[in-house]
Design brief:
Elements: H1 11-67, H2 73-87, E1 91-96, E2 101-105, E3 111-117, E4 121-128, H3 130-178, H4 187-233, E5 237-242, E6 247-250, H5 252-258, H6 278-290, E7 294-303, E8 306-318, E9 324-333, H7 335-380, H8 385-412, E10 420-423, H9 424-438, E11 443-447, E12 452-455, H10 457-478, E13 483-489, E14 495-500, H11 528-538, E15 542-548, E16 552-558
Parallel strand pairs: 11-13
Antiparallel strand pairs: 1-2, 1-4, 3-4, 5-6, 5-9, 7-8, 8-9, 10-12, 13-14, 14-16, 15-16
Helix pairs in contact: 1-2, 1-3, 3-4, 7-8, 7-11, 9-10, 10-11
Amino acid sequence: MVSLAHAPLTKTGFRRDVKLFLICLVGFLVFLIFTLLLLLRVDLSRTEETIDRSQAVVADIAADAINHTDRAPAALDAQMVFLRGRFHIAGIALQMRNRTRVTSGAQQGTFDRVTRLSGPGTLQLNFDATVRRDARTRFWITAAICVAAASLGTVLLLSYLPRIIRPIEEMLDQARTLGDPTAGQDETAYLIDTFRNSIATLKAQEGELKLLHDREKERADDLERVTAALTRSLTSGLIAIDAAGGIVDINAAGREILGVDATQSLAGRRFADVIPLTAFGEALSTAFAHQSAMTRVEIDDVRGSDPVTVGLTTVPLRNESGVFLGLLALFTDLTPIRSLEARVQEMTTLAQLGEISAGIAHEFRSSLSTILGYMKLARRGGVDDVAEGRLQSAEKEASLLLQAIERLLAFARPVQLNSESVDLRDLVCEQMKPLRDIAPDVTFDLDGPAVAIEGDRILLSRAVENLLRNAVDAVRQKGDGGSVRVVVRDTPAPSVTIVDNGVGFDPAETSRLFLPFHSNKPNGFGMGLPLAKKIVLLHGGTLRLQGEPGKGAVATMEFAGEAPAA
């Protein structure tokens, strides 16, 4: 026998050795299969011989029993029935010498038939052939399976042999690209050495990669800490959105501006499903859909029930290839700034109106004083009753006009606040007392806790009085009694809300009601609301009016900041 342990491992030699091994293996399996078939065939032959011997013995016993049985058909039939039950015979037929035929059991079908000569005649026994047929069927099924298995094994060998040897051949080719074998080194040792050297090189490179990974991880961790600190320190809101529209991060300022719970986890959720501000969410969705940049876009929205103004700037993120990576959104709550601008504008407008009103009022007051002086001189010279009545009417009208001018001067006059702690509830209660006596047909109601603010008590009393008188006049003008309800609140900011069910007003006239000499009352001067608004603005607050014709009005004074602790 030739040893192949140290033969050179070339492609041809390896392919030959693999084929030889697999052919021997398949040949051995085929030999085992055909050996098994031979043994099964021998077993089948022995089974059939056993069946034949058994049936021959039973046939001899049956023939002997018939020989000793009376020739009467009834006796023969009884004997046949006994033999069938005793030896499991499917059917028996006796052809007597007088041509009479006596049968018992099945006569038609596939049977193993055994014939014996007996005294009465020819005896035929029909045995069930199922056992013999089943044995033959099992043999042929087993033979078919074995042949199919041998064929399948051969096909698999021919199909997968190239796939088995190709990786080894490619490994040999790749090994040669790494270096040539040394003199006298067979290819088996060369392949093993090349594999070991490659493993050692990979381990060394793995160590270097791990070192580089650790360094990059440290740098990434440092960058993440710096980024997190920067995000936390931003006073503006920041949202980072990935390319799929999911939120990567949102800082605390952004949660506060948008009204999102600070403890709610938003990472991975779609920004369109999280942002509660409708207009802001639509603007951000548009910027994301078009992958566009926005610069200082102001968006008017509603947070809860309060109007807000949010300034939005978006920056689309792209890699070196221009692929869209996501979107950064910076936004700021501009509501306090816009509110301050509105208050400044209102104060400026009121100041300008005051200057104009002061000049007009000064001229009117001088002329009215002269007119009243001439009227007094005319009365001293003696006049008849008719002229006296006319002079009195003229003096009355001039006095009313002088009152209007005095109010206009009060509106235009610069105001110096004398701040002190003022309880809004007590202030409202004080102004309600004289009105209860003046308007007994009006129901007054006061709700809310004691709320203290820093302000000028006299000026605030004047503002509250003007608003309460307007409410009472509106209720009495309607003519059905009615009520005035005042609610004092301390959250979210100190406020006083006056609600009446009087004649109301057209919402389109809201802005004009704050202008001097604009009044819906028949005998009103139109100075109460402008003066009240001026006082509230001087205290850093806002005065809002809401109304509907025939359904009453609501006046709300809201002061900036929280109420001081009691």
